[in-house]
């Protein structure tokens, strides 16, 4: 006899438990708003998930390896001589601190924000994807691009979050 009241239910709970680690860069608050909207949505559809957020300026390379799924999020900046760059804090994390990190097949997802008035709209998304791929991570869903103000785009964030949850099942990680 075991001490689990409902062994089948306990096994189901263990199978569904996942952890998401979000590393994001936000200075104007837009990226943080999108991340918060996503986490609020995920909490309602995946109560068994653990979610952690780390600002890129406080993150260390080891933070990119924590959790079952890594989510990178950044707005597009016009720094470094041309438009279409990562937020400077995210750039330092990915191209300085974690430039030699091996994601070793880790399931990943990316969110990039941008303004339609620029030629390289939401190009931060491309930079994040490139980092994941170049460092042997595995993108499990198409990258979410939020164009212009994020306010009023919560439904798109929720729908993308559902795709992330569906893609985060271990059977899909093979």
Structure description:
By secondary structure, the chain is α/β, with parallel strands linked by helices. It has one domain: Flavodoxin domain (Rossmann fold, 3-Layer(aba) Sandwich). Helix content is 35%, strand content 22%. The chain has 5 helices and 7 strands. Strands 1, 2, 3, 4, 5, 6 and 7 form a 7-stranded mixed sheet that branches. The chain is globular and about 45 Å long. It starts with 6 loop residues before the first helix and ends in a 7-residue tail after the last helix.
Assembly context of the chains: single chain
CATH level-3 fold name: Rossmann fold
Roughly what fraction of the amino acids lie in strands?
15-25%
Helix- and strand-based class? Answer: alpha/beta
* Estimated radius of gyration: 17 Å
For the record, give the distance between the C-alpha atoms at the N and C termini, rounded to a whole number.
35 Å
Mean pLDDT: 86
CATH superfamily: Flavodoxin domain
Helix content bin: 25-40%
Question: What string gives the helices and strands in order?
Answer: HEHEEEHEHEEH
Overall geometry comes to globular
Number of separate helices: 5
Q: How many runs of DSSP E, i.e. beta strands? A: 7
- Domain tally: 1
CATH architecture classification name: 3-Layer(aba) Sandwich
Low-pLDDT windows of residues: 1-15
CATH class: Alpha Beta
Main sheet characteristics? 7 strands, mixed
